[in-house]
Design goal:
The structure is a homodimer of 317-residue chains. Helix content of chain A is 46%, strand content 15%. With 317 residues, chain A is of the alpha/beta class. In chain A, α3 packs across α8, α5 packs parallel to α6 and α9 crosses α11. The interface between A and B is medium-sized, with 26 and 26 residues.
Chain lengths: 317, 317
Amino acid sequence: MVTFADVAEAAVRLSGVANRTPVVTSRRIDAALGLHVELKCENLQRVGAFKFRGAYNALARFDAEQRSRGVVAFSSGNHAQAVALAARLLGIPATIVMPHDAPRSKVAATRGYGATVRPYDRYTEDRAAIAASLAAEQGLTVIPPFDHPDVIAGQGTAALELFADVSALDALVVPLGGGGLLAGSLLAAGALAPRCRVYGVEPAAGNDGQQSLRAGRIVTIEPPQTIADGAQTTQLGTLTFPIIAERVTDIVTVDDAALTAAMRTLAATTKLVVEPTGCLGFAGLESLRETLAGTRVGVILSGGNVDLDVLAGALRP
Amino acid sequence: MVTFADVAEAAVRLSGVANRTPVVTSRRIDAALGLHVELKCENLQRVGAFKFRGAYNALARFDAEQRSRGVVAFSSGNHAQAVALAARLLGIPATIVMPHDAPRSKVAATRGYGATVRPYDRYTEDRAAIAASLAAEQGLTVIPPFDHPDVIAGQGTAALELFADVSALDALVVPLGGGGLLAGSLLAAGALAPRCRVYGVEPAAGNDGQQSLRAGRIVTIEPPQTIADGAQTTQLGTLTFPIIAERVTDIVTVDDAALTAAMRTLAATTKLVVEPTGCLGFAGLESLRETLAGTRVGVILSGGNVDLDVLAGALRP
């Protein structure tokens, strides 16, 4: 079981290694939404996304045998870069199983950190099975993108920092894919801001989290088609789901058009480049604005790794 | 005469009003340039540019008579927004004389802050004369975009914060238009980091600063054609020039292609939207990298207000 103590320990482990990312506000955004919004800029995190937190926390806990044999990870992008960089920093060999259609910028960045990339077809192959067989053959340790106690604990440090850096938040709105960031955020909120409502936001095309919450069990869907490539997960994890089910206030969804509009608004107003998945929390404010009217709302901008032609397309509607 | 004491007083006046903007680093940029770069994010300042510092500092010093009559300013963009917002915060009526071809985003933002906009043709009309006649007719106080002691002092607070927030810098690289930011930065460096080399960077098409430094007097040029719309100045000021001439290490230039490339690099690598003028300092590192090899270099990213179609164009080379 993962607890807040694990998040707090991860924060110590990450201190001086991960960026303590800034919190940005915009009076224009506040006026447009009728909320006060505090944007936690994980797009300015190392590797351009919060995923560095969980990956480094997990790899830093490897024993000598694990370190010498190496790590294998599967990821739609940012977790790949995160494991690759964390492995390089810790001197651990890394193999990354990545979808063949992952954004070019993410594949290039992963290779740039010195990792070996093993491509797969996300519509026909099972990435977890590929990673498992590499692990069995070569003695590698698998670090999954979200369903791992050390990954969840590491991801929770973003919310921990946000609660420490801004005054009392009434709500926290978090992108949701496999649930690592949301579960970690819920642990941080539970200890540091127990009255703070916490919302997950996922792509409308891939609302397995919302379905799971309603059903009270993990619902599995087909791989969703959405520009939020970091949230193309088919189900929550066996570790993340119980935390989310017990603690989350609600899960809402946004469509791709709302994500594109959010990218444009964030670039124009806050001067920040945020990837589609990273916009989920901000885009979700539109459907929460009546519920949260007049309150102080934290939003995690979870990443900024977007191909420049995708960003350019979003800027020209 | 403006001194560091004025900059320090401005910092007190701006505390809690201006954003204390974050400093961002990128190991990828450091590796590419062979430097350690600390990016001071004035694109995340209120109104999206450092200009808010000088404008607010100047308007906050108005007496009751000046406050009730109002302010008039002339500007190619960010100073306009800065004066408009500072005036609104302080309850002062504002009229802004803006070029008819200023970026649409800047004109809209200035109007959005409640100011009256008076357009002019920058190739045939004299904006200073228009402002002077409005001042004479209506008793308004003119706040020029750079050549004013309170403006220079306010702009110096960005460098003051940077010196306070990061360890000893070997060099500071600053965008140069009329010289308000550079002069203020030089005052801050002189007091806080006397061994720090300070460079100004201006558009190659408008290198009046470099010419003035070489000639030892203020050289006036034709309005330059450059995408760095915030640096389309024709001469340094009578207050900024002596400070720059006495203290600056050197002035270098960059062309528009380098500014476009810098916008792209900063968006892709640091996840920051920076306007062309705001990229001057970063783009200038290319010609300074041999001189500064291996050193710690502060760079002011001076603003982020760029029309989204211009940004989109820069992202698709």
